């Protein structure tokens, strides 16, 4: 997933100064962003009100879109450093290619997890003969300093652990929930859980009091800790809970994202996560020079994305919220 904004803001995120140690209800409104091809997304993180939830630092929700006569998702090769990308689908397919030579079609409820480390490039597109509907989320996880310069890697997990309750089914993308542990590689204490709720479901989901959480609503109407939510919105919940009440009004789907608050300060610009502006400048130069750092994505029919121009203004510390 790429940030296609031609004037991406430089953001300083992370740290623990602005984390709510107590439960809160903070509704994050999405921003509409064109992605490529016929796809538009609702960008929920980074947000005007909040930039991170644990190590989760970027969340796009898209669809459900009718793409019967459309190209669907078409994101040309682009670079990443200092993060993991998480591809998650409820409907449709995404063909992933990367500079490691990976070429794989990701399908609903399968985890596509790419660790950029010191540098990788990839493309994402709806394959030829794709299905009629595209619906999913693309997310980034910030890598801690100890892991951000590791060798790049790509994982695909078609079979993920599942938790169940009355009219509830949960698939564990990352981390652990109620004893079910994802095989996906995590570099910080984190959790990602996809939930399907049947009409009338009422459950109390166990959560970690030391984690901060947010809920992304994917489909249907759901009440989360007493707050009614519609699709495409995100509710930040803070920390301090041991359980999370959920109620479904009709069949619905949502994603629970959480983790230990990310203590380190990070700088985000375009598709890069670093610690200083100089690191961002070097990464941009390395990408534009077509050197060895990001490799080549083979098999994509088209040119790679050019990096936007760097801003003239210096970095301004903004913390986790603004």
Automatic annotation (TrEMBL):
Pfam families: Pirin (PF02678), Pirin_C (PF05726). Residues 193-289 form the Pirin C-terminal domain. SUPFAM superfamilies: RmlC-like cupins. CDD domains: cupin_pirin_C, cupin_pirin_N. Residues 40-141 form the Pirin N-terminal domain. Gene3D superfamilies: Jelly Rolls (2.60.120.10). Belongs to the pirin family. This is Pirin family protein. It comes from Microtetraspora glauca. The lineage of its organism: Bacteria, Bacillati, Actinomycetota, Actinomycetes, Streptosporangiales.
């Amino acid at each position: 997933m790429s940030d296609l904004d031609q004037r991406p803001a430089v953001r300083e995120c992370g740290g623990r100064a602005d984390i709510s140690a107590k439960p809160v209800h903070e509704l994050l409104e999405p921003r509409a962003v064109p992605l490529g091809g016929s796809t538009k997304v609702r960008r929920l993180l980074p947000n005007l009100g909040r930039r991170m939830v644990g190590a989760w630092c970027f969340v796009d929700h898209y669809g459900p879109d009718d793409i019967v006569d459309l190209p669907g998702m078409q994101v040309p090769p682009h670079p990443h450093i200092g993060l993991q990308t998480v591809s998650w689908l409820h409907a449709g397919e995404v063909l992933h290619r990367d500079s490691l030579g990976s070429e794989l079609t990701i399908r609903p409820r399968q985890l596509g997890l790419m660790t950029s480390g010191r540098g990788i490039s990839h493309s994402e597109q709806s394959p030829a003969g794709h299905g009629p509907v595209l619906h999913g989320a693309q997310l980034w996880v910030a890598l801690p300093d100890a892991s951000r310069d590791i060798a790049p890697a790509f994982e695909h997990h078609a079979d993920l652990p599942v938790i169940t309750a009355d009219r509830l089914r949960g698939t564990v993308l990352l981390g652990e929930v109620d004893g079910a542990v994802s095989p996906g590689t995590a570099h910080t204490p984190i959790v990602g859980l996809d939930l399907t709720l049947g009409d009338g479901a009422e459950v109390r989901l166990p959560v970690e009091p030391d984690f901060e959480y947010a809920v992304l609503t994917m489909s249907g109407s759901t009440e989360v800790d007493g707050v009614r939510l519609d699709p495409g919105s995100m509710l930040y919940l803070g920390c301090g809970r041991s359980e999370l009440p959920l109620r479904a009004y009709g069949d619905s789907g949502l994603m629970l994202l959480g983790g230990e608050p990310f203590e380190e300060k990070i700088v985000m610009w375009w598709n890069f996560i670093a610690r200083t502006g100089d690191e961002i400048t070097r990464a941009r130069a390395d990408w534009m020079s077509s050197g060895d750092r990001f490799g080549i994505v083979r098999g994509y029919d088209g040119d790679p994305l050019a990096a936007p121009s760097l801003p003239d203004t210096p970095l301004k510390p903004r913390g986790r919220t603004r």
